[in-house]
Amino acid sequence: MVINKKRGDYFSQFINWFWLRPENALMVSLRAEKYAETLKYFDQDSSIDVSCGDGVFSFVTLGGEISTSSDMFRSVNLNKDRYGNFDTFDHFDETYFVEVARHADYQYTVGSDWKDNLLKKSEKLGFYKNLLLHDNNKKFEFGSDKFGYVYSNSAYWINNFEEHLKDLERITKPGGYIVLEMKTDKIKEYNSLNYGINIIGHDAAALLDAGRLSTWKGLKSLTEIDDILANLQNCEVINRTPIYGDYLGYMWDVGLRPIFKPLAKMVSLMSDVSRSEVKAEMSEIFTTLGSQVLEKYEANEATAMEWLYVIRKK
User: What CATH number does the domain containing 232 carry?
Assistant: First the structure.
């Protein structure tokens, strides 16, 4: 399975989806590029997208396209500020829709997540054959050796990280692959409360942080992750590569995060015609601002805060 998309192709799709948070489009375009390189291992008959969220990231990575009429801000909870564990996007109502412009080249057998609202959103894509509400702090109820391809970009958030990885190993078939995209504790260096507090002051840094630093207790160093994966008895790491960090880490930390809520409120009050016009204009601006940055970017191992691992089960 080969997806002939480059990071620029992904960027145009993700700008459409993340247009009020364009910094996210930069990050996930690089993530998608690395993810797509692992699809040569994809098992069409037995695959699981662990912590799939609303499903759009994997859907686009596997060749799908979303119409410009749709984006992730169609159904959000703006009743309070995003802080710590509160998730603005953990919300679903009748206003949410996804218009698919092109279906993905392949489907996942299973998509799982611990947030029911996100699973309801992912169902709109018609991309997952089965959807499962599952807390990754618990073992999957699947039997052993079930999936030929297991993907997750959220394994590092789990309280018992090592046990979760052992369970992913358990449900993977011999000869199958586990693909992990994981942030390390390097991300803390790109948090405003660490790098910016002496420049912009505590209140401004805390506004940018929005409680995120306090929730990152489970993050591990690259060395710790390497050691944990090396201890998986029936697996071997066949690829480990950096995805992004350095100045992109700072761009992601700031972005439009501080003004997202008022922007989203304004957008929610617009007519569909006005909304489409504003979205098109902003997307064009952000595409111009980000395209060359993305084109020239090369991940640096010394400064990377997110990594791709490909693990083969023996």
Answer: 3.40.50.150
